[in-house]
């Protein structure tokens, strides 16, 4: 019985030495691993997107609108816009709507556009579609439009359909009559018309 008590006492004495040393070893390992670990490695981030956003200053869903002296409302919208070196706005999926005081409506839609507010001009580019409430639909690749005046001009050939039938021309100009508020489409440079007698005439 005395021998067992002495053995127990020795075991307790050794444990009093071994356990603290083991604890120190564990703590040392934790601290050493912490010192060898780079805290920045666990913080994922992207510098490419941030730099691109800062450089492009991209704006989503911008709108530009104005009213001329006769009361016609002209509004432009886009999916995105960003400034370029010429102090213009380069926009994607551009749409314009002109509400005339006469009640007529004209719309422009283009894949891209350049908005130049200082000179109140917008250029629509790529698959431009022009429609009017009087039944015209016209296609062209580029169109210059006023932002405060009812005026637009194609930068090249156009083709379209309307009350007279199918037509094409080297140039198209949109103008308005301040006295009546009506808008007019003027086609020039090799105008061709395939007359459709079945269509109602304006």
TrEMBL record:
Segments crossing the lipid bilayer: 12-33
Keyword set includes Membrane: yes
Keywords on record: Membrane, Transmembrane, Transmembrane helix
Stated name of the protein: LPS export ABC transporter periplasmic protein LptC
Protein species of origin: Pseudooceanicola spongiae
Organism classification: Bacteria, Pseudomonadati, Pseudomonadota, Alphaproteobacteria, Rhodobacterales
